[in-house]
Predict the structure.
Amino acid sequence: MDISQHEEGLSEMQEVKRRFFALRNGIVADTLRSNGSPFRIIFGLNLPQLKEIAAFTGENRELAEALWNNTTTRESMMLAPMIFPREEFDEAHAQKWLDASPSSEITDALCHSMLRHRPYAQALALQRLKCAKNEHDAYGALRLALNVVSRIDAEALRGAVDGLPSEIKACPTILRLMRQLEEELEFLAESR
């Protein structure tokens, strides 16, 4: 499907869904399902395809909100932070969307597509690390910290990570992210 042409008579949401359908990849979708993806509807689109749709769609807050609230569809939630106008995505939205993220994949997309570009990103990562009560909270904070590691105070970050509850630190995913973060901090220190 030529993504450069608008479809006549379709709502913006319908047009986006038609694009998802036209680009669907059953093998990727089946793999995601078999690996426990929480979504009922998975088209199997990859990031370059979603970025292409985002570029065509352009910034659109109303559509982004509608896509984010379409929690049954993987690609809707991945596309939402790509088209939400950055200057309008305040810290309250960031908190709400991080809390509502149903999977690590969506959290990754949110942190990479939107949150790392916001001026409050470093403070938000530290604050969420200090307040993390579960693996979900810690994952979002660590992913955001990894996206802004070159702009964040290393000692404050290490202190916040050290302060995580031991049961959260014991989670394999969190351990992996903590190691990755420490490697990044060491690399940055060596390259200065």
